[in-house]
Amino acid sequence: MKHLDEYRDGALARGVARRIAKEAQDRRVYSFMEFCGGHTHAISRYGIEDLLPPNIRLIHGPGCPVCVLPSGRIDEAIELGKRDNVTLCVYGDLMRVPGSNGASLARAKANGADVRMVYSTLDAVKIAENDPRRQIVFFAIGFETTTPPTAMAIRLAQRKKLENFSIFCNHVLTPPAMRKILETSDSQALPLDGFIGPAHVSTIIGTAPYRAFAREFQKPVVVAGFEPLDVLQAILMLILQVNGGHAEVENEYIRAVTEDGNRIALAEIADIFELRESFEWRGLGEIPASGLRLREGYWEFDAERRFPVDKRFARDNPACECGAILRGVKHPRDCKLFGGACTPETPMGACMVSSEGSCAAYWSYGRFRAFERKAAE
Amino acid sequence: MNKIDLLGRKLDLRHGCVDLSHGSGGRAMTRLIADIFHAAFDNDWLRAGNDQSAFDVSAGRMVMTTDSYVVSPLFFPGGDIGLLAVNGTINDIAMAGARPLYMSASFIIEEGFPFVDLQRIARSMGAASRAANTPIITGDTKVVERGKADGVFISTACVGAAPKDVELSADRARPGDVILLSGSIGDHGVAVMSKRENLSFETDILSDTAALQDLVAAMMAAGHASIRAMRDPTRGGLAATLNEIAYQSRVGARIDEAALPIKPQVAAACELLGLDPLNVANEGKLVAIVSPEATEGVLNAMRAHPLGADAARIGEIIDDDHCFVQMTTAFGGLRIVDWLSGEQLPRIC
Q1: Of A26, B60, B97, B242, which one's alpha carbon is 20 to 30 angstroms from that of A94?
Q2: For A136, phi and psi rounded to 5 degrees?
């Protein structure tokens, strides 16, 4: 595959790995957080850690929209889906995410709720168009990457004068979450030397929003693509910054990301959405100005206004370490439930279900390492 | 007056459809069976018109399997549910190193299903069973109300025979054994997905559905004593099959990503849909676990057969109490190849 195979090339990877081994200083440890689940999965799927010296630590960040969604929101969506005239359209990732008491959208579907898996927001609009008697609610979720497609669906529904289409909005923003991690983490629990910055999110918001982190917190940020060579190259760039005492925003992903991002998408988001005062993140708690809702002019498309659902506060299983894992202070292997009570078949927390979750990545691609570690000890 | 005339008018195969009377045991059902199934499968056993068929068995080991097919859509690039049912069932017999002999086929049909589609499915089953020299000698038909099935579901059984000393089994893999794969992976799953509602995309990939008994016969001739196990990686893909073998034999496996034959179109489609080709279904491929000294002979026999032309040595069995299937990535790292969790693709076989 042209434009993909180049970024997965083993020979090039060995070259960058040699360079990393040469630049990384033996006497110190380098701890970098990859913010996005997409990076976490690339790291596990391609076995990137096998190419790194042992003193480079990769910390998995909270960049998995399904993982940071509080389970109460799943309960609220289930309530919506159970209504007689409602069809709830969701991305496949959400189907098995646990709500409270073992509930999930997949289970609600099995029990008769009309929950349908869609591959794009436009599929949901099409369903609404084809079935005007039913109320179609799209479960809108994701960071800045998936917000423009939701905006496009709203725009389309408006143009088609669809009275039976609305969204259950759970869109969140990346920079406030990065800030929260930097502001609340203490350097002992979470030593952090820099960020591998978001890939797809940055195609929308650009690199400029990360400047504050470099400046205020003196942490370098290297925006990187999701291919394994991107990740490796970003690690090298971070090491060079750390060694040189720099803290700058650099862009490894120049083939897709600009400084200012996608202006058309950003304008569309700004026109349709506004900031919520505060939004709850699983693991990170309430973060001010971190979530989006529809502006007044678009309230007719807001499922939370059309079908008032009581706000739910669900408690996660107390043994589930998703929260600490999302904050980067624990690794999936540190969780007592991992691999026993919690597996992809019987998930206790969303991190084990989502294709971007760190527990899922570690389970699917890397869990043999836990035994290797034990054997080595 | 001949026998057929007693059943009244022939079915309107071009415009008609199945209704509940075609499953009620009356004249309409006999008509449906005669005009569609007997016409397509055409053999002496069916012509005799009994509720069962008798055949002689040879000395040796008998092998039996049963399978059911609920694929959606029913027709896809490179095949249809009928072709899949015949080939898939035959392959289950062939994976025991056995020669398939006779098949049964039962149909659960949704009321309103067009005769023309049913005939097309039956004809492709007839052609496939003749090509594999495995006649369909008994069957059953049920019709259910609209909404109680999705077009047609097919359930099959097959018996086959193997020489007395042949004992292929997925619990026989041993560390050091070599893993062979007969060709490219993911073709069937991608072909089916390309035609799914809400997901249609342009691709020239065809399903790889094929009956593998001749390929198996060639492999058995080349070294049947050295082949420990064979399995066709259908649902769950190559990943599931390797994990099953590892689990049943209580061993691990190590495969090499660079050695896996994957067509560029399949790789691209999987990339687009966020799937791993290792989890995507195949319907005309097999995995063989072979003792190391026989590898070359068996691999050459595979490559000499059209269905094994792209056969490759993809890895080996290793000692591992945790039964992990590991893969050396083309990038240079190591990862697990896990069972598929949850549902990747609804109803692909």
Answers
A1: B242
A2: -100, 120
